[in-house]
Design brief:
Four copies of one chain form a homotetramer. Chain A has 14 helices and ten strands. By secondary structure, chain A is of the alpha/beta class. Chain A has a domain of 173 residues: Deoxyhypusine Synthase (3-Layer(aba) Sandwich). Chain A has a six-stranded parallel beta sheet, sandwiched between helices. At the A-C interface, helix 6, strand 5, helix 10, helix 11 and helix 12 of A face helix 6, strand 5, helix 10, helix 11 and helix 12 of C. Strand 1 of chain C pairs antiparallel with strand 4 of chain D.
Chain lengths: 313, 313, 313, 313
């Protein structure tokens, strides 16, 4: 590339304005002309839109972090309802908290002044803390009642089949992630299922249960293998990120689209903070993929992305 | 507080929805019912609105980071134009880049693929990199031409007086932070002014210049002393944060409102990441203050706050 | 507490010196008199020493992150060999890389200049990148050969039993974590086992395998229940952290000692960055526990802690 | 580069051991064979050693963060005493705290249990908090007594000349950074001097003071210009980092060696977290420079680097 070519390819930064006509789509378009994480967020919105518009694209969604307790359950529900997610990979914690809310229990706001209460006092009040969100410990009793009366049809079914069964048992609810996945036939994978309060209750009450984690793993590889076009959106990182990526690694078509919303960074070498470019070296993300990593709290970025998709798709 | 009182004070987390009627004000209201940084951002919006609504409130704004190069110049300009800032404390870098844009030069987008160019090649092309934003080195020549022909009225004026003079010399421009501050009589303090390309050019061409930094410091203390109600918004951290806070420390009225948007954290002990509560121990922030620290990239949070204020104030 | 009492309890910061007599134990003692993460690291060293000295203490060790690829395999091996770990909870990735090294394969240093090679080129060279560490893809072939010839005695054994069996099959090696755990009867729990290259190979070659993850979970709860005194050291966070903590939650004796080495922070609300104090609200860490979270790259902190223990225990 | 050449250049990761013969030099040598921040720290040690060994190298040291309050005053003192620093650029805060300690006042350890005291209570006790370090507010009275009786020889001297004068007025002390700099003729630059408690006291008591910040800036440029070989070590970031780098930018010889110890990261676009490679695009760091950025708390990394230098130089 000659110097002149290089310089002509560069666009001027957009010193944009917000005015009375601004809406989410014009804001995102404006941010696309800036830099740093504003541009990355705008790019993530555009890429996700393309994933939705591309009818051949299988959309994998990795969900880590305490997104249900903090108030993002309804947004995730609507991602699924609107068809923005085809395969959900998540943590046992999000499933546990989803059941709690679905059964009518609630997470609570630790307001700025109340968060000053010591963790020792919270323990005395049987109140579990998730940063500034509280969960009364008695929620576990409700989950236990629900779990103990389940008539599990097959002790060796996969985790994803079990979660579909579970969704069918849950009451109607306009926010339940497990329920809407069951209704929309969106499989939920949860590779670290036994790392959760839900699994503990299951284990205590159904001692013969031996859900087949290996079959889940192979099912996921098959889904990835069959995807003509694969698009990935990672919230947080952790096991959901790696599980989606390991399935891509051995496929004929690695990911064509990749988005990650995280506060983790690459320097300490962990997978959660690894760049999406690093995933190219492994063949998990295609070398021609469109991708964007947004360094942002998902509680801010996720609603904005949804809002954009809802307007545009 | 009895257990019952404590529990009754707690509100349920809001599992909110986004729909076709959502606008920025309803979104922020929804986020106020959640947790983590979404709630903190919503709280920051509310606090800033209260700062604007409270006619006695003197609004101090600390601006660090490369906000002008990245495309936030127009937003900061409008913060000032709308009267949301009474006192601006910033870095020499933001002023240097503001002059560059005001003189008609532009920062450039390093697009995702182009950012792969090596820094060594960029240097050969005389292109300076600020993360994914580029600035052609020749911009300095334009600044030099402007600076060299200045007839500075007083070599020992304060930095803030000099910046007002500078604003008056700059051409009309709908984004220039220095210009709008001069027009609106918003003083700009820049304690580390000599740590900038602008000051270097001034020093090279005006060797007798000895702007009185100490008088700036005392002027700032007087402004803080006289403020009946003080409200603070910090973008980033650094010298602007400390300079505003040190002025509050010895005042009869420490800050009544305090907002910080930053990616820095408290654990390594630096001031940029210090919590606003820590500032209470110093008497910089009032113990009854409303405050919110948002861990977010300012390129995402600042436009959202402005958008909210523009609708609500 | 009266003002006087409060002030008298405070110790002066130690403006320490390093000289020719300094060794790791005197350095750690000096850092204990400082603040920020130096003090936290020194405290972590002291707490771990107390865990080792206390013969009733069951030492749980949670290991996330790419610690084996980066060169910490020998240190972790020695933690186990010296008896500093009683129960290991780790990721499938660390186990996969441990087998690779044990079978005679090597991870490679991407030197500062070589790391400039693009991920696309690395993919062409079949070289997988883990930040600045590379792993040739052909390593998987060696793992496959090893895995395919295994005669697994029981398809429904627990993951921890399987890992013991695996350790017995591995060749002698002075660094192998799986091998030394088998030899020293240190159980390895891996709740997200199917999230790994090792499990993929197992799944491909042993299609009837259905390792019993639920029994692992219940075994872990029993171990935690029986521990008279529990001490926890967490490297990174992730599933290993949560799995240890969930086992503590329902025990008569929650953790008496707790250490975490991590670069994650609490503000985004994820479990990896949650403070050890938060764990007190859940009853996972005892309210009288000695604890220290060190915000540090484990590749720096872990060798220092081991060095200190080796000298002191 | 052919595939074979590329692969042959790569070294195996060193799965090192720590044993009874390990000392700081052998540990650093071992870490050099690993990756992530352990390798970067080892590289920083090696580079700094080369800076000291190279008699033509002018060693610039940028010191931000609360390093004096936290207990690193003695280490920084010894860096200067041993000749490891030729030019010091720091913050007004570090100078203020250095004077406090030199006058016999002390910073205090907020122990883990005491740090639970609320900031509101600390304020009532006139105790200022710097993360987990406390400073009694009365320290300011001691500084005021010292500052008020100064007979400043020239109101328009540079900040660096003033700091040399100040060092001469301070009592003998085996830790004072300002004192040892005066004795060893190591100039101290402090571009944001008026952003400090020290400057506030000076301003209140010496109203005619107008230290010439511009001349400091030009002096620094001259020193950088004259340096045959320039080596840079940055602790933290902030104004000290930028001030050193801006002086390098217009010099015939940009930096040959560059080290940064920081917890800041590049993604939000601020200068503190910018990579040393980015500085190459600006011509601040030479394209052939040896450099290492260590993502670490300086309270851990700085003593290790000093310990290594003390043994090796």
């Amino acid at each position: 590339m000659t110097d002149k070519d290089f310089k002509e390819k560069l666009k001027e930064i957009n010193q944009f304005k917000i005015n009375k006509d601004t809406d989410i789509t014009s804001l995102i378009k404006s941010l696309l002309g800036t830099g740093f994480n504003a541009k990355r967020l705008a790019l993530a919105c555009e890429i996700y839109k393309e994933m939705v518009d591309n009818k051949d694209c299988v959309k994998f969604f990795g969900l880590a972090g305490a997104m249900v307790p903090v108030g993002m359950q309804g947004i995730i529900y609507d991602f699924i309802k609107e068809g923005y997610i085809d395969i959900l990979v998540t943590t046992g914690a999000n499933l546990t908290h989803d059941i709690a809310e679905t059964l009518g229990y609630h997470h609570l706001q630790g307001s700025v002044s109340i968060s000053d209460i010591s963790d020792i006092d919270l323990h005395k009040q049987e109140m579990n803390r998730i940063y500034d969100v509280f969960m009364p410990n008695k929620v576990y009793e409700g989950i236990e009642d629900f779990v103990s009366q389940l008539k599990i049809p097959d002790n060796e079914m996969t985790v994803s089949s079990f979660l579909k069964y579970l969704g069918e048992q849950l009451p109607e609810n306009s926010n339940s992630v497990i329920k809407i996945c069951a209704e929309k036939n969106v499989p939920i994978f949860c590779p670290a299922f036994t790392d959760s309060g839900l699994a503990l209750q299951l284990g205590f009450h159904h001692q013969k249960l031996n859900l087949n984690h290996f079959k889940d793993m192979l099912d996921m590889v098959n889904i990835a293998w069959d995807a003509k076009i694969a698009g990935i959106c990672i919230i947080g990182g952790g096991v959901p990120k790696n599980f989606i990526f390991q399935s891509m690694q051995f496929c004929p078509n690695s990911a064509t689209y990749a988005i990650q919303i995280t506060m983790d960074r690459p320097e300490p070498g962990g997978l959660s903070g690894a760049t999406l470019r690093e995933a190219m070296s492994w063949g998990k993300v295609n070398e021609k993929a469109k991708y964007s990593t947004v360094i942002a709290d998902a509680t801010i970025a996720l609603p904005l992305i949804f809002w954009y998709l809802k307007k545009m798709c």
